[in-house]
Amino acid sequence: MPYDTPLEDQPLTHPDKRHPPSPATRVATKKREDRRTPPDELAAALVESVSADSLRSTVEALSAFHTRHTFSPLIGPAAEEIVTRLAAAGYPDVDRRGWANGGHSADNVICTKPGTSADKPVIILCAHYDSRMEDANNATARAPGADDNASGVAAILEAARVLAPVALSSTVQFVAFSGEEQGLWGSAAYAAALHATGTEAYRVLNLDMVGRPPEDGSVTVERDLGNAVPGNDAASQALGAVMAQAAADHTALPVRLGPIYASDYMPFEAHSDVTIGAYEGEGNPHYHRTSDTPATLDYDYLADITRITLATVAVAALTD
Residue 307 and residue 303: Cα distance in Å, rounded? Predict the structure, then answer.
């Protein structure tokens, strides 16, 4: 299988969600009374179709792999599990697109839902499917990675299932990355490959650890706050406001606003794409531990994160 644009010996680093560059702050959100626009009506229909049982099934299937470490031989079968589930959701043509870096290689899983309009930005809904435990270089230890990040992948796959019969103006890509825990290798390769073709900027929604609510039950909406390309900050913050409003309109989740950092949206931001993320916030005691199992997750919370993601896609895909 052909590789994406090869990485140029990108260093082995280990993203750490425990140390944000700035704290997330609680914001007041209020449900709107008038939600009769086509995007709002579509969002209302989509959120009703989200299944917590479907989300649990995906988390359990991915966590059943002894590990999904990028350097493990199990990373390939884990990718194939995602392909199989996307096919079952109504997408028979799913790509496994390889990347190579520093003597290692693995696949990103790319599923494209074509839109009806060629002049709208492509929306990339993404999450990483690789996992690790405390020793980042140990590719054989048990690393179920239920919250980090089978939860994000489950939300992506559930969004794909719900959106399968829905006509959208924008093309939507559902993408599961490998190599995140080694330094965003898979997403860096894919972002470089997309932009090597000279395509327009994308809208990127990244889900990384969205299955275990913090003490206040909130979701953190992550926005671009002055990274490699400051010119895309305003659009990112506007899209983040859409996600925050979706939380108020379709769930009871309190909202915090925080920065993007240490996950797969960063390579896209560096290519000038508009990026946001949803994140449960700091405090999971099972982070990068063997104890990060499906039993530690709250599937109603994960369903709500999926709902606000779907509602955000509905607005972006019809009005951007």
Answer: 6
Both structure tokens of 174: 């559902």
Sequence-ordered alpha helix ranges (H) in the chain: 38-47, 52-63, 75-88, 151-163, 185-196, 233-250, 266-270, 299-319
> How crowded is residue 309: how many other Cβ atoms within 10 Å of its Cβ?
26
Position of tokens 């895309």? Answer: 232
Residue showing tokens 């305003």: 234
The first and second tokens of residue 201, run together, are 């900027």
Query: Which helix (H) or strand (E) is 277 found in, with range?
Result: strand 274-279
Helix, strand, coil % over all residues of the chain, rounded to 5: 35, 20, 45
- The strands making up 255-259's β-sheet, listed across from edge to edge, are 25-27, 255-259, 219-223, 274-279, 203-207, 123-128, 172-177, 104-113, 95-101
pLDDT in tens, 244-272: 999 999 999 999 999 999 999 999 999 99
Cα–chain center distance at 226: 21
In 3D space, the residue among 201, 147, 158, 153 whose CA is nearest the CA of residue 175 turns out to be 153
For residue 139, give the 3-state DSSP assignment.
coil
CB-based contact 100:107 (threshold 8 Å):
no
Report the predicted TM-score, pTM, of the whole model to 2 decimal places. Answer: 0.97
